[in-house]
Amino acid sequence: MRKLMNKSVNASYKKLATTSLLVFLTACEVGPDYERPKIAMPDLNAKEEIAEFVANKWWSVFSDVTLNNLEERALKYNADMKIAIANVEMAAAMAGVAIADLFPSIKASGRGNRSLDSKNTRMGKMLTEGRNATDYSAGFDASYEIDFWGKYRRANEAARANLLSAKAGKEVALLAVTAGVAKAYFQLRSLEAKLAIAERTLKIREGTCAVYKSRFQNGYCSEFDYLRVQAEMASVKTTVLNLESGLAKAENALSVLIGANPREIVARRTAKSQAIERLRIPSTVPQGLPSDILARRPDVLIVEGQLIAANAEIGKARAAYFPSISLTGAYGFESMSLGRLFAGGSEMMNFGAGIYLPIFNGGKIRSLNKAAEANYRLMLAEYEKSIQNAFRDALDALISNRKTREIVISRTRQVNALKKSYAIAKRQKEVGLIGLIDLLDVERNLLGAEMELVEALQSQLNATVDLCKALGGGWKA
User: Fold this and answer.
1) What is the dihedral of CA 258, 262, 266, 267, to 10 degrees?
2) Whole-angstrom distance, CA of residue 432 vs CA of residue 223
């Protein structure tokens, strides 16, 4: 009895040891496990933190209905967004292919065959019965490569990392497209404002030119004064024509960004909205950088996904040094009669195992390993570069946002002062205290200052867009 118990215990130990060995071998993965590289980061205190991150519909901070509608349309119809979505779907499909390699491959098969042997052969002359032969078979074939060294698990890891990069690429495209739409829309509003200023000035110049033409024809002013007024009117007319041309091109560009069809592009019917000076600009803007900027920036996530994939490819390349063990098997039925194909005695099966071990391949495996390691170093450098660019972009955007606000204030003061100066100059001209040239100088300066104020407003709006983009999609104060 004791011998039987010892025998049973020893058998259990053998089974346990065999199972443990198989688990160990199956769990073994060659190559380094991924760890995020350690990079010297700035110390960001709590006062510099941004309260809550909002990546969805960041453009809503401008509170412009027309802009909101344009952005929503761009997300649906923009060609770059369609490309990014297709890339995500393709990466997801490839990740599914990589996962499938971890499981056995099972195929069903069936066959029917009828043959006729010749009488004029040695085999045909030996046949005593009919020369017709019929054969039917049906069954399943299975094959499986044991992933001892983690080759397929590393491939699956690389595929999932590539999927991560593709998803981040979609977010990069989303940010780029929505930022492009916002800037194109602000340019449109800016050109409209400039055109309105130029047309108003042109109307004043045309009236002045008509007055001086009459005075010149009646001998009340010199030809010099009349030609000077005429030249100033022509200068403003040129400005109007240039702005009309720029406005048409801006509408074309915006139409393409929102995915308009060719007929809509030709029609150029962009919905009108509030003037640029009435567009809402967020008053509360972050003063520092968020500590999780690396998790927010999709361009950084793209490169990190590529870095993870490159790290996994090292393990996949190293696994080529080790033997590949494959298991194959088949089970089915075979009979000369279709009616007895699945009857007793028709069963057939086979099982086999094979091993493949590279011995000499001219250094191919060594070269593939060196290539994988070099690619990892390349992606590591790209990752470090992407982090540097992320902080540079964010700092530049913060500075631009702060300075453009100051410029708008300064330009507004300049325009207000010139408007008062122009009103005074008109009264002085009417009573003869100053000449025409002095009035035209003040008028010209006012026109230039108003144009520059509109440009400053556009720059301030664009700086806000850049800040939203640099922070990975916006902020919530």
Assistant:
1) -70
2) 19
Indicate the DSSP class of residue 476: B
Q: What is the three-class DSSP state of 474? A: coil
What's the pLDDT tens digit per position in 131-146? 566 776 766 676 656 6
Look up the CATH number of domain 45-102+151-322+366-470: 1.20.1600.10
Residue with tokens 């002045």: 208
How far apart CA 415 and CA 412 sit, in angstroms, is 5
CA-to-CA separations, 190 to 18, 91, 183, 216, 232, in angstroms, rounded? 76, 41, 10, 38, 23
Number of neighbouring beta carbons within 10 Å of residue 313:
24
| Domain boundaries defined on the chain | 45-102+151-322+366-470, 105-146+323-356
- pLDDT over 80 at 355, yes or no: no
Q: Which fold has domain 105-146+323-356?
A: Outer membrane efflux proteins (OEP) (2.20.200)
Three-state DSSP at 414 gives helix
Phi, psi (deg, nearest 5) at residue 294: -70, -30
Distance CA 378, CA 385 (A): 11
- Measured CA to CA, the distance from residue 102 to residue 147 in angstroms comes to 8
Instruction: Calculate mean pLDDT across residues 257-278.
Output: 62
Confidence of residue 413 (pLDDT cuts 50, 70, 90): very high
Report the DSSP beta bridge partners of residue 161.
Answer: none
3-state class of 432 per DSSP? coil
**Residue 446 · residue 186 · CB < 8 Å:** no
Query: What string of DSSP letters covers 264-301?
Result: HHHHT-PPP-S-GGGS---S---SS--TTHHHH-HHHH
Q: How far apart are CA 328 and CA 245, in angstroms?
A: 72
Choice between 257 and 117, residue whose per-residue pLDDT is larger: 257
